[in-house]
Amino acid sequence: MTVSAHEGEKPKARSRFKLDVRTLGPAAALILLCIVGFALNPAFLSEGNVINLLTRSAFIGIIAIGATFVITAGGIDLSVGSMAAVIAGVMIIAMNSAVESMGTGVPTILLGCGLSLILGIGAGWLNGVMTTRGKIEAFIVTLGTMGIYRSLVTYFANGGTLALDFDIRNTYRPVYYDSFFGLPVPVWVFAVVAIAGWVLLNRTAFGRYCMAIGSNEAVARYSAINVDRVKTMTYVIQGLCVSLATIIYVPRLGSASSTTGVLWELEAIAAVIIGGTILKGGYGRIGGTVIGALILTAIGNILNLTDIISNYLNGAMQGVIIIAAVWLQRGDFSRFRRAKK
Amino acid sequence: MNLSRTLGAVALGGLMAVSGAAVAQDEQITIGVSIPTPTHAWASGMNWHAEQAAARIEATYPNIDIVLVTSPDPSAQASALEDLVSVHQIDALVVLPFESEPLTDPVLNVKNSGAFITVVDRGLSQPGIEDVYVAGNNPQLGQASAEYFKTRLGDGDNIVILRGIPTVIDTERFDAFMAEIEGSGINVLDDEHANWNRDDGFEVMQDFLSRFPDIDGVWAQDDDIAIGVVEALRQAGREDEMFVVGGAGMKEIIRGIMDGDELIPIDVLYPPAMIATAMDVTVQKFVSNGPVEGRYILGATVVTQENAANFYFPDSPF
Question: What is the ipTM for the molecules in this complex?
Fold first, then answer.
């Protein structure tokens, strides 16, 4: 089938070699970054720091796995950071107000989590329906919802900070801070979401539909794929991922404000692209996204662990490393293509 | 809302004319207050205090009408200033400029309309426009914090610093802190920007904890950062090894100090209520016979368990 013809690459037909280069690019960048980190400060590879790093990358990582589906199917979602903030805010308000009737135990927390899932899926569905049925560009729809969610959380918090009731917080706290078999809960959630995402993208018809739509939506439509439904589903998956990330975010600091989740959307998109997924759609890599999220978190971590670079240049260092990481994989890839021609 | 408020004021003014009881002056005074829309907790605290002050002033002086306008960005604030002059014909302006440069000319235009100008917190880029300037004291915030560290720590003790967003405010606080701490023998292990934000405070502190086995004190500079720092300390189980000093005067932190929290024993004020001070000073221009023009630099008061109750506003969002 010639679904992906306009991208100049076919997902299955090409040799396995190209796929390996794509996988190795981000992984090589991560290993290189780890070596640099260790050389700058041996504490980088200490058990505590590695666990901090993995736990921290869970938020962006989980959101980025959802973003992999959206981007693979040729869409974009800019609203995820604001969505996370507003879901966190509503969760906190709901749990606080449920204290009187339901107490400060597990049921209240389950109520908050349930609400988070409903809101996440609902918000994702709205984004999806507006882009597909409403025929508005995803960039505009999600730019709009980004602004809406951001002002809603500011409004709910009265411009300040929403804080979770102290007693509920003590019940909820273990969801972020406790460990199973040596790894904190958020890392396990990240792992489970990553595996589920990988299976869905690589081993199901749905995943192949996403790639087909991202490659060429018109051809996908003629191939009897229900394009609107599949695209909407990618936004629903994104919303679900945001709500899962929020469920593990809230117990960390027990608060939400208008500064919660600022720029998470760009970090998530960056993680996806660093991981080898194509921004224009048609090709997605869950494994790469996981590595992309780890790279982004590791950069910030390494910059905090050393003082050889002026604090004012942190952003510049991040920029350089992100570009270099993508170049590492695309560089090889384009040379390979030129050799073929 | 503004209309009804104006109507209310007009009605009150009418009543007053009937009864013939002039409080200070017979003429109606309109004071415009222009502040940024709250986007973070400190600014929303300021908003709350502005509303409180407006209600209190209007209740005390029936001939004074306060028009409170919030604007989401510098250009909206410039338009708001024009409206205050043309629509409300203000006699005085209290303004907290979004940014100094873009708002200098708009404020100058208000000045040229004959209004009395009070500038709060962020100075204009051209001197001499404002009649009254009210601001917190950023260098003193750094200095007062450093003085406290010197009382608790001595030669060979280690501290780390979490800074705010890289801006002049942050630099002034940081430089004054470093100048005061110099020569005390206290080692500043490192400083990193935590952007006046809880999440960043948490992550930066986690990294400081992995990096330095021996830390005796943390200067977080801001209460939001301090909250993130405390969470990181609890996670690492190291909250007994050190103390944390924030800044600004968030109600949760003040509450903790009242209750004798040992982890955050003091706070240094950079009070959002400074807008109320500015409004009060401006009102005095019209009701008092004393001169009010000048610069009012509020002290960076150190809040301890003894005086914390004076700075605790449970209803404020900050």
Answer: 0.76
